[in-house]
Amino acid sequence: MSTDYGLTIVKDYPIKGVNFIDINGMLATPKHFTAVIEKFCETVKNNLPADKLAKAAIITPESRGFIFSAPVADRLKLPLLLIRKNGKIPSNPYSFRITNEYSTYNMEMDGDLLAKHDHFIYIDDILATGQTLASVREALGKKGKEIVLAVHLTAVAALKPVRDSNADLKGLPTKEII
Fold it and tell me: Which candidate in 6, 109, 126, 167 could, as Cys together with 26 as Cys, close a disulfide (CB 3.0–4.6 Å)?
């Protein structure tokens, strides 16, 4: 099934019962991709006061989040910190566990870059159960850092009750652009 912006829903992928949101059609259509990046930028600017925005950095998990966060960081003139798979940060990695609907695994970010920022705008593609976001929020909190806004391309509506019942997401402003 196709949606706006060239997104496609693939039923029973990667496992039975999961409806996968495929972003490939959107990425292959420059007008859709440009529109999506503009919507990310507008959403960030419309949901953070200018003084908070000026002090923030963008943080994003591997790998599909990279696609959206890099052009948004460039357009908003904000620093970008990448959350990478374990073993991919060469200097002073800060490691932590991610637990999401599929698995549990280790991720890391550059500890030196992390130390330079206190407030983050989290950008990713799909908000499902919210567990990846919750894990990143917890890891940042252990370092005295804060996510001030989380923006996703879209969210899985059927999982909203799961997200709403997650105590680790309480009080966190989240927005979806589609």
Answer: 6
